Amino acid sequence: IEGLYRYFVVHPDHLQLELEKMEMAPWDAENNSLKRSVCDVIASMTDRYALEIYSKLFLPNPLV
């Protein structure tokens, strides 16, 4: 969870894509804190989906 949090704070463009996939309201820099929006996205993820995203971002792809 912490890894996802740090990733989305550093990459708000990817946060925006995730918000769109989850059909959540887009992040509005003027009215919402980035950190709060990241927390909302992660809190809305199922465990399985969070693990899937984490694996895609941080774990190497198998060669086979």
Automatic annotation (TrEMBL):
Domain Phosphohydrolase-associated: residue ranges: 1-55
Pfam families xrefs: HD_assoc
GO molecular-function term, one example from the UniProt record: hydrolase activity
InterPro entries according to UniProt: PHydrolase_assoc_dom
Translocase keyword on record: no
Residue runs in coiled coils: none
Top-level taxon: Bacteria
Record flagged with keyword Hydrolase: yes
Assigned keywords, A-Z: Hydrolase
Protein name: Deoxyguanosinetriphosphate triphosphohydrolase
Lineage of producing organism: Bacteria, Pseudomonadati, Thermodesulfobacteriota, Desulfobacteria, Desulfobacterales
